[in-house]
Amino acid sequence: MNSQESVQIGALAKTLGITTRTIRYYEEIGVMGKSNRLIGGTRTYTRDDILRLKFILKLKDMGVSLKEIQELSNIFDINAQNFKTITPKLIEILDQHIAKVDDKIASLSSLRQDIVEYRVRITDLLAKADTN
């Protein structure tokens, strides 16, 4: 797709594995910007729109909240859609999420160790009960 071509909302949703409602919602909350419309009101999206939507979906997959995505989107739109303007904030958000993931990993590791130790105690108790 070149920058002049556009795709309709249904085809875009199908290609990305999301619903048209999701795309409309992202427009409503301001993270997608405004779509072009055909006669009859059908939404169409350019290559830039599709790249933006893919970026949003990637951020969502990584656990970035819609509020954080809205903040990035506002910075992006205010600054004439210059990607460099959101980079510092994006790095900050990603660093925060890395820290959260590290905390979760530590917590899960501790939980795993507790479960292993409890399992050992239970099997020891059962073994002692069998020998008595």
Automatic annotation (TrEMBL):
Q: Which SUPFAM superfamilies match?
A: Putative DNA-binding domain (SSF46955)
Q: In the UniProt record, does the keyword Ligase occur? A: no
PROSITE patterns from the UniProt entry: HTH_MERR_1, HTH_MERR_2
Provide the alphabetized UniProt keywords. DNA-binding, Repressor, Transcription, Transcription regulation
Highest taxon of the source?
Bacteria
Which GO terms label this protein's molecular function in UniProt? Answer: DNA binding; DNA-binding transcription factor activity
Q: Name one Pfam family in it.
A: MerR_1
HTH merR-type domain span: 8-75
Q: Which Gene3D superfamilies match?
A: 1.10.1660.10
Supply the name of the protein: DNA-binding transcriptional MerR regulator
Species name: Desulfoprunum benzoelyticum
> Species lineage, top-down?
Bacteria, Pseudomonadati, Thermodesulfobacteriota, Desulfobulbia, Desulfobulbales
